[in-house]
Design brief:
alpha+beta; Jelly Rolls; 2 domains; five-stranded antiparallel sheet; 8 helices; globular; transcription regulation; Env_Response_Regulators; DNA-binding transcription factor activity; cNMP-bd_dom_sf
């Protein structure tokens, strides 16, 4: 794992990655500056691992720029995409409460910079600022809900339905546009919904032929009829 410290990614001000994170951005400027004193900044090239399964997990890792794909490997070596982290999102929160090892892999999807805070430093901050604990619990609750929803989709819905729901999720409930941008490659999207890239391509074509979507480019899709898409 090729890491290099990069002080220019997060800077010395709270206006860096810390201000992007929901668990911190409710704090005032002085409190954020205090947090920044505990932060280390690292940068990764596309394809580099931030951590791998089996390694000690003792830091909170926050995405500052770029994106990380979090995935696990089955015993047969098959990848299962767990989630994609964008700027302001974080991983490693469970290590803040118990000594553990990573169960997943975190890989840079593009040139990516992250900020990291050790367990000891963050635990001290949790004692000093209890509101951070509540924010972390809210985030954990959201992730549990997302994991349960994803697991339910694997057992109760067809591949076509999982793809349709994924596209609808990208659109969001308050979106004013009917155009979504796929944040994943076909390989990662296939891994996320439990199928193959070939099947993703075939199902997208079928949805387009049914006039439910329109493919504008390889990564942009226009949702033509969301209601019908949700009730396949």
């Amino acid at each position: 794992m090729d890491q290099r410290k990069d002080k220019h990614n997060c800077g010395i001000s709270h206006k860096g990655c810390i201000s992007l994170v929901p668990i911190f951005n409710h704090l005032d400027a002085e409190q954020m500056d205090e947090i920044m004193e505990t932060v280390q900044s690292w940068s990764f090239k596309k394809g580099e691992l931030v951590y791998r399964a089996g390694e000690k997990s003792d830091v909170l890792t926050i995405v500052n720029k770029g994106s990380l794909r979090i995935y696990r490997l089955s015993e047969s070596g098959k990848e299962q995409l767990v989630r994609v982290l964008k700027p302001g999102e974080f991983t490693g929160e469970l290590a803040l409460f118990n000594e553990t090892v990573h169960e997943n892999y975190a890989e840079a999807m593009e040139p990516t910079s992250v900020c990291q805070i050790t367990r000891a430093d963050l635990q001290a901050l949790l004692v000093k600022y209890p509101s951070i604990s509540l924010k972390i619990l809210q985030e954990l609750s959201t992730r549990v809900d997302q994991s349960e929803t994803q697991a339910a989709r694997f057992t109760t819905e067809s591949t076509e339905q999982r793809l349709a729901l994924y596209l609808s999720d990208l659109l969001g409930p308050d979106s004013e546009s009917s155009i979504v941008t796929l944040p994943l490659t076909k390989k990662d999207l296939a891994s996320y919904i439990g199928t193959t890239p070939e099947t993703v391509s075939r199902k997208l074509k079928e949805l387009e032929e049914a006039n439910l979507i329109e493919r504008i480019s390889s990564s942009k899709i226009k949702i033509l009829d969301e209601d019908k898409l949700l009730f396949l």
